[in-house]
Every structure is written in structure tokens, then in C-alpha cells.
């Protein structure tokens, strides 16, 4: 049986957070940039301790950023979005985790089982 993680070990854990910033199309780009500047967006987002994994402009949608952060900073990201992004963007936020290692393990197990069945 797997052991539960200790609380002190959770400080080293990170989550991924996908942030969808949908443009308010009632404003042109110059208006959006001005409002972001007035709100302190460029200094406040992302908050300290949060890593930008990717940041893409998606035509017809807006921007999609993927952030890596310790769960304890989730509330800081939320407050930064509320203070700086609202009024310029409609925000959607999706927490996730890195599935790569799990997928690789499951693929190896599936291939091994398939090879065993073929014998």
C-alpha cells in the first residue's frame, strides 16, 4: 500500500495551471494594453514563485498561459487575476498535473502485457 505524502513533502510539489485569457473584443489592442498597464499587470502577473511554462496567443480566443507553481501559491495567482486581468480578459483556469511519467509507465506496462499475450 502506498504511503500518504507527508505535509512537509508537499512543499516540493507543483501543479500546472492553464489560464485562458479571453479578449474583451469591445476594446482595441491599445485600450487593452493601457488598462493592463494601469492595473499593474506587467509587474503582478504571474506572482513571484510562479513559473511560466508557456504563453501563447490563440487567434480568435486570446492568450493561453500554462504556469507551474506550488499549490500554496494558487490563491496568489487568483488574486493577481482578479486585480489585474478582469475588465480586460474573461478568465478561465484549469489546474492539472504532469502526466508524462505516468503515461510512459502505463505504455511500458501495456506493451509488456501485449508481448506476453503474443507468446
Any idea of the CATH class?
Alpha Beta
Overall 3D geometry? Answer: elongated
User: How many independent structural domains?
Assistant: 1
Helix content range of the residues, please? 40-55%
Q: Which architecture does the CATH hierarchy give at level 2? A: 2-Layer Sandwich
- What is the rounded distance between the termini? 31 Å
Any idea what the radius of gyration is?
Answer: 20 Å
**SSE pattern:** HEHHEEHEH
Assembly annotation? single chain
Assign the CATH topology: Alpha-Beta Plaits
Tell me what the structure shows.
The protein has 119 residues and is of the alpha+beta class. The chain has one domain (13-118): Lrp/AsnC effector binding domain/regulation of amino acid metabolism (RAM) domain (Alpha-Beta Plaits, 2-Layer Sandwich). The chain is built from five helices and four strands. The protein has helices at 7-10, 29-39, 41-44, 74-85, 100-118; strands at 15-23, 51-58, 62-69, 89-96. A four-stranded antiparallel sheet has the order 2-3-1-4, covered by helices on one side. The radius of gyration is 20 Å and the shape is elongated. The mean pLDDT is 90.
Defining traits:
alpha+beta; 5 helices; four-stranded antiparallel sheet; 119 residues; Alpha-Beta Plaits
How would you briefly describe this protein structure?
The chain has 5 helices and 4 strands; from the N terminus they run αβααββαβα. It has 119 residues and is of the alpha+beta class.
